[in-house]
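Please describe our next protein:
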Amino acid sequence: MSHASSRISALRSAALNVPDLQLAEDFFTRTWHLTVADRAPGVVYLRGTGQDHHLLALHQGGAQAQIKHISLRAHSESALHEAATLAVQHGGRVVKPAAPSAEPAGGTSVTIADPHGRIFELVVGDVLRTTLTEAADHPIRLAHVVLNTHDVPASQEFLAQVLDFSLSDRTKIMAFMRCNSDHHSIALGDTDNDALNHIAFLMPDLESVMRGGGRMRDAGYGIEWGPGRHGPGNNAFNYFVGPFDLVIEYTADVQQIDDSYTVGQPSDWKWPEGRVDHWGISQPPSAKLKEAQRAVLFETV
C-alpha cells in the first residue's frame, strides 16, 4: 500500500552547478518563466509563483552541469536527525550534519547521500512566501524529479527506509515514489547510469503546458517529447532539453492519491502498439532527449 511520508512533507527545490551562470539565469527567467528570489556570490535562487522561497539554486560550476542536491522539506527537526541516522544504517552517509542553513531561505538542514552518491538536502523551518500571485504560463512549484539508477531496488529501498517514501506505481522502466498526495515526487528510472533524468515544473493548467511548449519552441528549444498525458500520475507533459543538457518538463494535472491507492505493477502499465501516452498523439522521446537524460550527474562530495 502507498502511504504519505512521516518524515518528508514535499519536494522543495533542486541545486545545480552550471557552466555559465548568466546564461542559465537568462534562460530560466526569460524563457522558462521563473523569477529571481535572491542572490549570493556565485549563486542565483529562482522561484515560481508558489510558496517555496526558490525552486532552483543555480551555482557557477565547471564545464559540465551537475546536480548539487535535491532539497526536500521535512516535517520536523527530529525527522532530520532520524534521516541522518538511518542514512548511515542503510549504506549512505551524512554529507553535512544538521545545522542552521546558510541559504537565504534559512531553516535547519541536513544533507545526506545514498550509497550511489545521490545527494538529498532535508530542510525544516525555511521561509515560505505568503503573498502568492499565480500567473498563467508560469511554474508554481516543482512537481517531481526523476533520477536514473543502475539499481532500482537499492535506490527504492533507501528512499523508503530513510525518507519514508512509498511506491505508488512500478512500470517496466520506472519506480514512482511519493511522500504526500502527489502521485510521485521522486521517480527512479531503470537505466545503466545514475544521472538526472529530468526535473518537472508544475504549471497552473494544461493551457500553460501547451503555451509553454510554444514559447520554448519560439526560443529555439523544441518539444523533445510531448504533448502527451502520462500513465502513472496521469499528468500532462511537454519535455525539453534546456542549456547544458538539462532535461526539464512542464506538467499539470498531477494525480492526487491517498493511502487507499493500489500500487500498480508493470503489467498494469502497458501501452497499445504505437502509443506512449494516454492521448496517443505523442511521438516517442527524441534521441536528443534520451542522450541528455544521461548527461548530468551528481556532484562528487
Q: What stands out?
A: The chain has two domains: 8-124, 141-296. The chain has a mean pLDDT of 96. The two ends are 35 Å apart (CA to CA). The first strand starts at residue 8 and ends at 18.
